[in-house]
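Re-running the complex after MR caught last week's input typo. The corrected sequence lines follow. Everything else is unchanged.
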Amino acid sequence: MSAVTLPQIATLGRRAVIRTARQPANVVFPLIFPMLLLAVNAGGLKAATNLPGFPTDSFLAFALAVPFVQGALLATINANVELARDIQTGFLNRLALTPVRGLVLLVGQLGGLLTIALVQAVFYLAVGLAFGVRLASGVGGAAMVLLLETVIALGFAALGSWAALRTGSTEAVQGLFPVFFVFLFLSSMNMPRNLIQADWFRWVATVNPVSYLIEAVRSLVIEGWNWETIGLGFAAAGGLSIVGFALATQALWRRLERT
Amino acid sequence: MNESSSRVRDAVSVAKGVSWRVLHTFFTNPAFLLPSVAFPLFFFTAFVGGLSRIREVPGFNFPTGYTAFQFVFVLLQSAAFAGVFTGFGIARDFESGFMRRLMLAASNRSGILLGYAVSALVRWLTVAAVVTLVALLARMEIGGDGVDLFGLYVLALLLNLAGTLWATGVAMRLRTQQAAPVMQMPVFLILFFAPVYVPLNLLQGWIHGVASVNPITALLEAGRGFIAGEPQLTLAAFAIVVGLIAGFSLWAVRGLRRAEAAG
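Corrected-run output:
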């Protein structure tokens, strides 16, 4: 990275963050909605902790992992809708006429989004701690959760950027939300995989990469340092990031070609 | 008498036009039809598939199993949200300018409300048919007889009307698609602060208190009683939903008057 590139990335990243911050709905909703869902699920499914083999007595601790994935998803949708809007309004075309290199556009966008995702993650951790959740992995585990959240957000962000660059349409990016939502619900978000009774659902949750993201964060909260689970989570998030980044880069070159 | 029957005829005529337009758009546009059908099916699949082990929780003794238990929630949820989605359509019509032209042309503007309500009902009946078919294919057990099931679907139908009137009132007042969260979030919250995953007696903590006073709890319990063949809270549930309809009717009509006054 040259001395010119880093300030460009910083400028575009700052723009992404400020643009989000200026729209209260884009700030408040990703913070509040996952917490609401957590409250509903933690309260409504507390009885599930009585099942033999359930890994913890606290469904709140069990379910705390879900907002991290949900929050990353919501931040991705919001930020990439703005990227699509930049394409629709011609801002990207004008930016392409400047000395800014193509990849810097993508990295700046992703950098801004990661900042937002980290702020959200700190908020979720704080709420969890305030309501009595204690991380089995301690302070180090909290740091690991934030690192994992960064990689998770990067994965979703890259996929969202691919959709925005490929289609240039805000509606298409918003249409990703139900798709990601489906992946979230068809995972081990509400029940450990070994306790899912329906064979087909357990199979779907097993092949669903979102399950591994949730389970990695969850293990840091309720288990401690289960390196296998944590490793699988990083592998899933890393895999999503690599695939997403490759797709987004290709879409970016095509988009700039059309300019 | 002639004037009132003429007004009724005008309202019906307007309602026919409005509902035909909405339903034509709904059935011919996959972007509207597919999410309306897919989301209830998806929730049904995710809850039944992912949480069926809940039936082994000590104290869970719903007679017809977890599939039927969740089916009732999904049916009522789809009914409420079909109403909310109709509100989205009304907001969209305001933004496009269509609603202003419709208000100019309509001989009786109350027919506009009636038309949207009828279209919401038909939309929901379509979704309900699909969800019911899938539930039956999933071998859902039904303990109730024909009368019980009729009661269940009527309850859901009335909830659909209540949801439509709520969303219509919001859409008429705010007249923008940005009002979507205002229409959707209260409905979402009131549905999910009810015994969604387990019966009321298995809820613990603050959510038990909230669910105990949540009017939707009575509807859920009554609906689950119907499907199990053990009706309970029937009178309370119907009284609540009729009360919601009465209140939201006023809300919707006053919203219409505000929209008229705004021009």
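None of the earlier attempt is carried over here. The two ends of chain A are 25 Å apart (CA to CA). Residues 1 and 236 of chain A are 27 Å apart (CA to CA).
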